[in-house]
Amino acid sequence: MLRTRDVGRKRRDVAAHGMYRRRDTRRDVLIAEITAELRRYGVDAQHVGHAFAGQHGLNATDLQALIAVMDAELVGDPITPGRLGEHLGLSSGSVTALIDRLERVGHLRRDRDTTDRRKVLLRYAERGAELAMGFFRPLGERTDRVMAGFRDDELEVVYRFMTAMGASLREHRDEVRAARTEPHRRRSE
Amino acid sequence: MLRTRDVGRKRRDVAAHGMYRRRDTRRDVLIAEITAELRRYGVDAQHVGHAFAGQHGLNATDLQALIAVMDAELVGDPITPGRLGEHLGLSSGSVTALIDRLERVGHLRRDRDTTDRRKVLLRYAERGAELAMGFFRPLGERTDRVMAGFRDDELEVVYRFMTAMGASLREHRDEVRAARTEPHRRRSE
DNA sequence: GGCGAAAATCTCGGCTGTCTAGATACTTTT
DNA sequence: AAAAGTATCTAGACAGCCGAGATTTTCGCC
């Protein structure tokens, strides 16, 4: 694989991501395209988040954190700084700074847990909720329009697919993370 | 919406993302779940990239850049620093630093375009290619196993779905970016 | 009921990546 | 061949992140 020879015809439309794969059959093409589209979707989603956050005076991490806080609280168990750090992949120091920022501008607040007073519970404030909704509502409207083009049984297929892909990716993530203890053993070149 | 009242039953399994939506019919649930799963997929993908990059002595941006360089070169037209900056959402200064880093450790190299000698073309080096493959191969294997659980016609549906969602998201991205000129006009509170 | 280990969060110093503005190199236009 | 335009690079400042140690609270045990 990875033949650079027969690529001179400049097929940009191939989405530039499926080319690490075979493309012999229609099925191969489908698989390659879906993979590529998933990747692009992730990148573009990041960009949307980044742009939106920037326009509201915060960075991408801040927005993600705000969303995580809302998610947790809406499900009924508010998140703690520690769990937030895990969720975002941040160190404890960074999380404190992050919460300080968001608290300072009034997006969320700290509450001490009454039962275990070591813990701090994060709750969103009025302003934070508005911001999150401003982020999700337009996205949701667009999503609804796309979904309207699919029958129920088709959505079932998509759901099954996304669930399976998600589970697979998380497995992979854990595998990659597990290998983090032995990174630079051999110093070959 | 956003009733916090009837959420006390702690349904973590709801994936914590679909709750900005109605969930009355089976279809509503499907839509909410798919949306949630897409979001989670994006976050997890980021984490995988971050972890993998860290293990190889670079950061998430570096890995994304490396992939972009390979993608472009494999399609037949190598990317320039300028276009790479656009793709990653970085300023020109940051791109220079980025390329310096990657060139220094031997992941890619700079080539002057022979026809337009203002331009610099980025090409991956041996080491960069290895790294990218090390990133994609295990992912691809997993993906293949998931795909094996779907018939051709089902993959067609998934493909149609992802394409539509991708297009929609990119539209949204452009809309958000277009609004970037007038961010902090009113200084209300 | 008080002691030590464990847990959760916070503080502080240092580093790295990014941005902005301006400088440099090459190309195209007139 | 000078001026205007485009692409890239340089330099200084700043913000977010990490890691180690300090602080506060809880839990198990005697």
UniProtKB/TrEMBL annotation, chains A, B:
It comes from the Bacteria. Residues 27-167 form the HTH marR-type domain. GO terms for molecular function: DNA-binding transcription factor activity. InterPro entries: HTH_MarR-typ (IPR000835), MarR/SlyA-like (IPR039422), WH-like_DNA-bd_sf (IPR036388), WH_DNA-bd_sf (IPR036390). One of its GO terms (biological process) is response to stress. Pfam families: MarR_2. This is HTH marR-type domain-containing protein. It comes from Micromonospora sediminimaris.
